[in-house]
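Reposting from the mailing list since nobody answered there.

I have sequence plus structure tokens for a pair of proteins and want to know whether others read the tokens the same way I do. The first protein:
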Amino acid sequence: MYSQLITNIGINFKFYRRNRLLLVASIFIILVLGLSTIPGMFFLTKSGHLEIIRMVFSQLSSFATIVTAGLGLLLISHHIRNRSTKMVFTKPCLPEVWLLSSFLSASAVSFALYAGILLICSILFVVWNIPFQWGMLYIAFNDFLQAVILLSYITFLTVIFHPVLAVLFIFIFHEGTFYSIKLLLIGGIKAVGEGSVSIWLKILKGVVDVIYMVSPSLEPFSEKTGQIYSSLRISDANWE
């Protein structure tokens, strides 16, 4: 099983390389870095430079998240739609091993992207003579884990649905959507009164509650990490 996992991961890396997706990502990173840092040369204050670094990280992190999800979507959908999974499973290779290899290979690329983004921002700190903000390390790690959550979710959906439907499903049916519906139903029940509520409305609320609880949270603890994103300051309590 271990040898099959390593072999599949190596093949997945070749697949990524042949699809030129990482090449496009690298070109995009260079363009964003250039467009974001060149105006920063005209800033005379460290606060202006710090804002440029924060903007560079935010833009590159968003793109890395999209690339991470795209790798999982591309790999799974390509093999399933082209029916090439039969060649894998008849080796024989267990389906769960192949699926785990796709998850680990995309996660490894994502980790490399976020490490590169952190390195770029660290270089900017040195060039502009700004003390390194350790909150940047926390944000990079947190964004990486959020990208992995999105990767796992879109991988699951791509196995079940067409890739276009999987993307639409994520945009429409996510935790925030059902949380809004949940609040709407609670407000309606309180306004009408618990005793006068229709049984079907109660059933609907129960269904929404279940879906809300099982839906993955793509940005967990966002209300607690927001201050770190804005100030770039970190404490031991935040790591816990």
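The second protein, same order (residues first, tokens after):
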Amino acid sequence: MTTLVFWFFHIAYALILTYLVLGFIVSFEVSAAMNGGELALKWIRKHFSYEELYWSVIIFYPMLKLGYFLLEELPSFFTHNIHCQFDLDSLFEELFHHD
């Protein structure tokens, strides 16, 4: 294994892990905010502008769907009393146009 291949694999590994960690954080906070979590709404307002959240949702959309499934849809399947709604438009409206 040459040095170039060695560094390529380490950089690729670091990028994949960074995507997974940041994607989990964004998906957890967005899922909590979509269900009315006041702390999640405050956290998003503090850490993101409209454009930053918009691009984060686009970049981490697969993680967002996976996180929403694991945190909201799967538990509601077993409990039958939680109503889940994946609605990013209403989240953006509540976060940035609710002045």
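Reply #1 (J.P.):
I read it the same way you do. The longest helix spans residues 3-34.
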